[in-house]
Amino acid sequence: MAKRGRVKKIQADHHVVLREIVSQKPLATLEEVGAEFARRTGVRVHGATLSKGLREAGIERRRGPGEDLDRASAPVSKPTRYGYSDAHRAQAPEQIYASCLSDAEWLRVQDIFTNDGGRGLPPQHSRRSLLDACCYVVRTGCSWRMLPKDFPRWQNVYRTFRRWSDQGKVARTRRAHGDTERSGARRPVNTPLPARGRQRL
Questions:
Q1: What is the pTM of this model?
Q2: How far apart, in whole angstroms, are the C-alpha atoms of residue 39 and residue 34?
Q3: What is the extent of the structural domain holding 46?
């Protein structure tokens, strides 16, 4: 038994109707032909189905002599893009990730994290790398355990963040950046600074 597909909406006897419509209205658009075809036959068809039916009926649409020229000369306007642009994604060469502080931002807060006295063992990681790791967690919302390998170990970063929060250094850093923004200085990257709160380990 042969397979039977969907019955065509435009049958062979409809080709006569299509030829009559096109002969009476040679400049009609595809929508106008479809509306007239539906009025005469009571059959509503999609534009693609109508185009296929016109081809099967031996009807070919031809453009006028100046139509292609007008279309080619018309200015092509690009649709307006919304969202992030290249300026939003600007990243300084010294930044490993977009959340890291730039050199200008680090200079504004460096004195907050400088300890006088030089007692104890020398630090294994720079304070800037620890602060960048804290900013990464705050910016991405990831857990401390999911810090990338480019940063120090998450345990070290987490303990440092807690200590700095208790010492008020995080709040001072936020105030330093807020004062700079109010004075009109441009921040190269919109980097949020850590605020103490409950964070998943």
A1: 0.48
A2: 9
A3: 14-60
